[in-house]
Amino acid sequence: MTITEEKHEKKDHIIEIAEKLFSELGYDGASTRLIAQDAGVNMAMLNYYFGGKEGLYLAIFEKRIGESKLQLQSLNNEAISSFEKLNKCIENYADKMMANSCFQKIIYREMSLTQRSSVTDKIIQLLSENALEIKKILLDGIANGSFAEVDVDMLIATMFGTKSYLINSSQMASFLIGKDITDPKVREEEVKPRLKDHMKKMFKAYLTKS
What we know:
Elements: H1 3-29, H2 32-39, H3 43-50, H4 53-76, H5 82-99, H6 101-111, H7 118-143, H8 152-168, H9 170-177, H10 184-207
Helix pairs in contact: 1-2, 1-4, 1-6, 3-4, 4-5, 4-7, 5-7, 5-10, 6-8, 8-9
């Protein structure tokens, strides 16, 4: 392993630990000292890589949202039908959402804050870029005649709202579904397939031209 590869691996490890602690304890509750301790690194290394707590917090969003953005951009460039793009988008979205509930909880907590900061503004900017990639799939489908004329903004809100309910209202969602959706096995084997099937059918019914 090269020095560069080792550095990236170490940074990714710190990000994963920080992500878990931020989701459990919140931004204020997860100290850099605790993160460094759980990651098995010293404070000097953490500060060297990220410049402090704020830089580490943003690094989580940049990594996770950046990965999704590249995936969406690649999907938008594929020579496939609009419905195929949409179905792939739903597949990828559900996979990421169910595989990383920690990050979804951080997003929800950040978006629920009433006071905005430079960090919040940066996070909203990153999230908005991904929302625009999803919006492009829908608008292109309407433009090329594949989709019916619909309220695209509200349709995207429906997608995000379903995610928010399942991840951030897990107790209520578990009661409704009849299974503990905080259990990784239940999420992977039961909830995720149902989510994909539901969203594909719902979007198809809404977007199919009469």
